[in-house]
Amino acid sequence: MSATSKPRTTRIKASECRYRHAIFDLSPYPVPDGGWGVEAWLLAALRYNRLIDTFLGVSAYCASERQAEPAGRGRPSVAAVYIAKGRSGENFVIPVLTAGGTLRVSNRLLANVVSVCRSRYPSLIPRPVAVQFVRDESGETIVMFALDEVDGEIRARDEKHYRLVPASEITADDLTAARRAGASQ
What dihedral angle (degrees, nearest 10) is formed by the CA atoms of 99, 132, 25, 173? Predict the structure, then answer.
């Protein structure tokens, strides 16, 4: 690739046919209408509702988080870094990429993020995650993607959709679906 050519980017788009898992909402404040507040809310929702833990099946804590930036340009950036332990004792560093609107991740960005993780945390396994907030006619959804680079292409290894709801709105169907999902892991 020449110095003037753009890095290859992959558009990561939320699948419309995915099941939206209902999660008890423990977020400290409601979703803002836009601007700087959406990313800050998304990061708080990840932390307070332990969505990294739920999504990856690990025990994680937030090691660092940057200040929110204005949403809307679609340029992903590392918004938070989590340190986690897996079920089998593996140790992970989880950079969380967020972006407003359409999520486009360049191969160069992902490679840089993984490289920084490996240099700062040499004994931990990098597991990059991209997070997107989607608001549509069916409500508000947090979409999470586990990212991998395969043959020079960025791929979403896993994708899950979560809707945060008050405990009173969790239905018997939601609980049955959660049990089924837990049994299949």
Answer: 180
Distance between CA atoms of residues 100 and 69, nearest Å: 10
How far from 125 is each of 32, 115, 174, CA to CA, in Å?
Answer: 34, 11, 33
Output the furthest CA–CA distance in the chain (Å, rounded).
Answer: 56
Q: Which two tokens stand for residue 130?
A: 């991209």
Instruction: Give the total residue count for the chain.
Output: 185
What's the angle, vertex CA 122, arms to CA 118 and CA 127, rounded to 5?
50
The Cα 46–Cα 141 span in angstroms is: 12
H-type alpha helices, the chain:
36-48, 51-56, 107-120, 172-184
Model confidence over 72-88: pLDDT tens digits? 444 567 889 999 999 99
Express each pLDDT in 126-147 by its tens digit: 999 989 888 777 778 899 999 8
Q: Please give the Cα distance from 68 to 113 (Å, whole number).
A: 18
**pTM, to two decimals:** 0.80
Task: Residue 141: name the closest of 168, 159, 167 by CA.
Answer: 159
Whose tokens are 């870094």? That residue is: 81
